[in-house]
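Model the whole thing, not chain by chain.
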Amino acid sequence: MRVTLWGTRGSVARGGMQTVRYGGDTSVVEVEGSDGTRLILDGGSGLMRVTPGLGSFCERIDVLLTHLHMDHIQGLGFFYPLRDPDIQTHIYGPVSTTMGLGDRLARYLSPPLFPVRLRDLQAMHLHDVEPGSFEIGSFTITADLIVHPGPTLGYRIEENGSALAYLPDHEPALGHQEFPAASEWTSGFDLMRDVDLLIHDAQYTDEEYEGRVGWGHSTLGQTVALASQAGVKTLVTFHHDPEHSDEMLDALLQEALKKKPALELVPGRAGSAFEL
Amino acid sequence: MAQQPIEMILLRLWASYIAVPMWITDSDGNLVFYNEPAEALVGRRFDEAGEIKAADLASVFVTSDLNDEPLPVTEIPTWVALTDRIPAHRKLRFRAFDGSWRNIELSALPIEGQGGRLLGSLSAFWEIEKEIEKEIEK
């Protein structure tokens, strides 16, 4: 599979010269399978970068949403396959006890927040995802609920013996006196266990986290420690804080590398790709 | 060992901060956690006791009603919550790890996740020795 990062920023898009190298668009990752199956992970503002070129060779596209916070869905309204009847679009998101995925997405995709109503978008199929596994094309996808405010899924995507885990918004350290804790009692552990590539929340510095416990995100140090415990081969840092400039992200990465983590540590840069 | 569902992870973390004695079972009835306040009644630290299989619970914690009549496992609120998926409550006695008998009042809730998944149960309990003595005095 080929994995391409299109949006790596967390919380809110941040353009400008300070975010040129790591990217300012919010969460979107594209995954292309060996049979041409194409998955889009999350629908942040980075979705605008996926769009060009899709229509000429793509009859179906599957968008897997981890959750419905604005930075993960705000690109959907501008995602042209949703308006193209020749492209079958499937959107997956966490199940809720109160409302279906369509009703929840319609809160954003309807006036006054958006001029076009969700029901007017064509050829779209919605799927409320419960924890478990399912198949899309050549991929086996496992979804599980993880620690983040509101129902939030992490995904493990497998094909031909390779495995990718995607947990862009995740606070597994919440409530633990010591972290990482026993794997059995750690959120997201089975999703990331022994994967080739983990794309994971690394939004905060240690100092920032002290004032933001419970906001649903991790520090770079927590993420490296957990990924190491889980046997991850390559860790891609993701969901960069909008206040963090390219220079600051460089410095944080260098600091983490000094501790010689037992994995390959790669900063999440928009436009970078990985072959598994 | 497989990871517990996130609802159970959060439940355990929450219980570890609560001052009321609590224990948690998984969906098979295995005792997977009790908190620090419960340790005083159970008679052993959880880190020492570890998880207790459902099949062993009846022998580890012998139970009776307050009249010392043996209490079938099917009448223990924790079991009722798991099997009938309803809240359950009663007074009972159990023999702790240290051999002493504890009179407790126990409330149990089934823990269900989205999609109707039975994940386990949460039981909160209180020692009622003093209340019983008061009743006897009356």
